[in-house]
Design goal:
The protein is built from nine helices and five strands. The protein has a five-stranded mixed sheet. Strand 4 and strand 5 form a beta hairpin. Helix 4 packs antiparallel against helix 5, helix 4 packs across helix 7 and helix 4 crosses helix 8.
Length: 226
């Protein structure tokens, strides 16, 4: 083979290698996607660790633990995935363990939607110490396309001071609380529900049983997620 031919083949090989590297490492390539995902994971870990204490302060807490693992869920009562995840979370909470679930509200249809009204009803039920049963009632509701009797939901949830509940529903306080939750969701760059924040990261979307157990630990022991 002549020297010129060897140089030509060498040049072709170099071009092929460069082309392959460009394809692999471009944003949509295999390596590019891996690098992007790793960066997002690192960013989420920093964001979660920075904000978990603030997120955990909401009074809408379910579970008896005050010192164990805290899992914060941004939720929407009309969200199909939130509704699918609810029984899993409820059943794990009933089993006990050293963890608690804090609910933050993120109505995807906006602050004037039925979902937002449901969030306000849940916030108002907190004042009577009935957040958890109201949370259950709202996730069990099926009459979203009809005029909703929030007072009837409150009665079903065991709220006894109905006058105070109705006054709360018409006041600014629960709306300010809802705005706070939605602003936190925007700060955390959460694009949808459900979204879960714990001390070691953020999980977006439906939370599988295995991931939940990895976060909280089946026996309630603290356990980090790799």
């Amino acid at each position: 083979m002549s020297q010129r031919s060897e140089q030509f083949h060498t040049l072709v090989n170099v071009v092929v290698v460069i082309a392959c590297l460009v394809v692999v490492f471009q944003p949509d390539g295999v390596a590019g996607a891996f690098i992007r995902k790793a960066r997002e994971s690192r960013r989420d870990k920093v964001t979660a660790r920075t904000n978990i204490e603030t997120l955990s302060r909401a009074p809408s807490r379910i579970g008896n633990s005050r010192t164990g693992v805290v899992l914060v869920e941004f939720s929407d009562y009309q969200c199909a995935y939130c509704r699918r995840n609810h029984p899993l979370l409820r059943d794990r909470l009933k089993e006990g363990g050293d963890w608690s679930l804090v609910i933050r509200h993120m109505p995807l249809s906006g602050p004037a939607s039925t979902s937002a009204q449901a969030a306000i009803a849940a916030i108002c039920a907190e004042s009577s110490g009935r957040f958890e049963p109201m949370h259950e009632v709202l996730f069990s509701a099926k009459d979203w396309d009809e005029p909703i009797d929030w007072k009837a939901h409150a009665i079903k949830a065991g709220v006894t001071d109905l006058a105070a509940f109705e006054a709360c529903m018409n006041s600014d306080a629960p709306r300010a609380r809802l705005r706070e939750d939605m602003q936190l969701a925007q700060k955390l760059q959460l694009g949808g529900t459900p979204a879960f924040i714990h001390s070691n990261g953020i999980h977006r979307g439906l939370l599988p049983l295995e991931k939940l157990d990895a976060i909280i630990g089946i026996t309630g022991n603290r356990q980090r997620v790799p």
